[in-house]
């Protein structure tokens, strides 16, 4: 299996990042949809506990994925057009910002955060750090929903592009060159 990207297809690691994170994002959005639609239901109680730890995992993964994308930038399949390029950039921006703002808010709240039992934030006594919490309070949820909207658009466009053979980019994210 080709590990690195080439001009005609994404390599194994880029595809693992893409599809693995797509599954994790699906779970992450299930947790918020269950919370919003069925707060305090059995489903919400089951899912919400994974929102913060999974959010942290997604934060770590997107940083690794960004480094990998940069390391491969000279040898990746070229974007179809400028809007596609900007769309992918916006996805990256939101994938970084949404969990980052939440983690800043978590730290500023002074409450401990121990995902998977790891003592990541010990918490502290005294006043909350308001300036660290404010961006998350304003933007975490809103940008999170914006990310979901962008993902829906991204998937829809991937499907629309399948209609024209020269625009069909799905194969290269499945490990096959376009046209095969
Ligand atoms: C990429 C990862 C993440 C996504 C896509 C995401 C998405 C969202 C969304 C859409 C909401 C809004 C729910 C509503 O409207 O009520 C929300 C709420 C929340 N998230 Fe996240 N989240 C992520 C990571 C995190 C992380 C890392 C933490 C904490 C460490 C966190 C903590 C919270 C909390 C406490 C709320 C409820 C308060 C609020 O609405 O801001 N999230 N998240
Ligand atoms: C069923 C779900 C999905 C499908 C069918 C899909 C399809 C695709 C396709 C065909 C490409 C290649 C585009 C090209 O080469 O020009 C691509 C790239 C990309 N997709 Fe998706 N996608 C899905 C889910 C997601 C999700 C959930 C995210 C992020 C939250 C995402 C983020 C990206 C990004 C950033 C790229 C650019 C390549 C990279 O750096 O990984 N996709 N997607």
From TrEMBL:
Protein family: Belongs to the cytochrome b561 family.
Keyword vocabulary terms for this entry: Cell membrane, Electron transport, Heme, Iron, Membrane, Metal-binding, Transmembrane, Transmembrane helix, Transport
Topology versus the membrane: Multi-pass membrane protein
Claim: rRNA-binding is one of the keywords in the record: no
SUPFAM superfamilies to which the protein is assigned, alphabetical: Transmembrane di-heme cytochromes
Listed Pfam families: Ni_hydr_CYTB
Residue ranges crossing the lipid bilayer per the database entry: 16-38, 50-68, 89-108, 143-160
Descriptive protein name: Cytochrome b
Localization annotation: Cell membrane
Listed cofactors: heme b
Annotated InterPro entries: Cyt_b561_bac/Ni-Hgenase, Cytochrome_b561_oxidase, Di-haem_cyt_TM
Domain Cytochrome b561 bacterial/Ni-hydrogenase: from-to ranges: 9-175
């Amino acid at each position: 299996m080709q590990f690195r990207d080439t001009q005609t297809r994404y390599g194994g690691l880029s595809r693992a990042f893409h599809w693995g994170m797509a599954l994790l994002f699906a779970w992450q959005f299930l947790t918020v949809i269950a919370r919003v639609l069925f707060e305090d239901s059995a489903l919400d109680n089951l899912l919400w506990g994974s929102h913060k730890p999974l959010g942290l995992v997604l934060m770590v993964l997107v940083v690794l994925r960004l480094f990998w994308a940069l390391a491969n930038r000279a040898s990746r399949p070229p974007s179809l057009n400028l809007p596609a390029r900007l769309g992918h950039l916006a996805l990256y921006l939101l994938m970084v910002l949404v969990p980052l703002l939440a983690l800043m808010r978590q730290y500023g709240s002074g409450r401990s955060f121990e995902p998977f039992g790891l003592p990541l934030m010990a918490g502290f006594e005294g006043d909350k750090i308001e300036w660290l919490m404010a961006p998350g309070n304003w933007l975490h949820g809103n940008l999170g929903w914006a990310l979901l909207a962008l993902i829906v658009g991204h998937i829809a466009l991937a499907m629309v592009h399948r209609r024209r053979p020269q625009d069909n980019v799905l194969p290269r994210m499945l490990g096959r060159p376009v046209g095969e």
